[in-house]
Design a protein that fits this description.
The protein is 36% helix and 22% strand. It has 487 residues and is an alpha+beta fold.
Length: 487
Amino acid sequence: MKKILLFILLVAIVLASVVLYNTFTFKSKQIQVEPVAKIDIPATAKDHMSQAIQIPTISNANPADFDSTAFDNFKKFVKDTYPLTDSLLDIHYINEYSMVMKLAGSNATLKPVIFMGHLDVVPVPQENRSKWSADPFGGEIKDGQIWGRGAIDDKISVIGNMEALELLLIEGFSPERTIYFCYGHDEELGGVNGAIPIVNYLKEKGVEAEYVVDEGFAITKGMIPGIEKEVALIGTAEKGFVTYNLTIDIAGGHSSMPAPESAIDILSRAIVKLKDNLFPVELSQPVKDFMTYAGPEMPFVQKMAFANPWLFESMIMSTYSKTPSGNALIRTTTAPTIINAGVKDNVIPYQAKASVNFRILPGSSIEEVRNHVVEVIDDERIKVEIGDFASEPPRASPTDAFGYISLEKTIKEIFPEVLITPNLVIGATDSRHYYEICDNIYRFTPFHLNSENISTFHGIDERIPVADFEDAVRFYYQLIKNSGRAL
């Protein structure tokens, strides 16, 4: 017995030694960069952002509701507001409204860089307009903020890019590396008429990009447990997307004589099964990278856990699983979103339908999701069909490539006090279509994301502080300069 106890003690000592060694050698990956001088932003910049918001470039689900006049007005707005951009760049329109702008570099041997954004915004339902504190398409500037749909998603990127580019062109900026600015007009509908044909156009031109930067994560405050400082999150990958439509057809009839089960019963049980049998938790590469970058900046206990995931993985997973945002980072999520059945309260329906949306972790696939759905439901009477739009989860982009390094450097130059870490974007962006012409795709938008504004884009009272917008112009000004140089 004494030998067994001594052996257990020895194992415990060795284990503790390894854990402590890993913890104390878990060094910070934050870079040291000299901040750049803060450039003056013209007072007209915020007015231009306001004017852009006032143009209701809405993506409606019904193609018949498409307002071509708004997108025509946006084209005119760009032409009138940014004269040097309009005259010095090669501008090509895809499907009339999506834009590809090319600023030619002096060194054709360098791979180009692509700045992305999207012109369209989601609708504001009529029933929600009274809940807004300002006209959602008024572009009102009050209380130090610019109000309206698109302020964050995603006219801050488009107008931020254009304001920065116009300033650089006024200064006579001429890059070594060619820079493209690509703005789709239907990102909110999947990019079918915007991003996809833009990529096809660039492929025809033989474009192979050094890196792509699109909307994505932001600078967070108080949103990462254990870290009080602001943290800039660079999305190195995003989750995939698929919806499966479930349909059951079975005899119905009068509600006074119900059969043992109805279409509603069967479909409801299927949905409950899917919610009771979630996908397993898993640490994808972007989340592992996040732990590597964020872990050293955390208090000792969290630092120890992130330094030794082989030992503390179950604890990490348990902690993440407790919040919707944390849970979304570690598993393919299951979300029933639509259910339809019945036409009258005394008629048992013959058919019931439901749509279940899945956001897929990198490393999994649309096929794996379907297999899971069929296996869990285990009912041949239910037809499982894929929805209109689907996207495989893209691979993670590296943190040692020119694109990540350029973003990291620029963030530190403009926001010197923030910490920087890669992470997984849980939503979908147009950038997923660009993997055909680029291996290094990053997602970052230079504004401050917090508990107050996280629900406003696609929600009520979307707005951006004037100070954040002006810093976004400074950020894009510096990133364009840094990206336009040779490696």
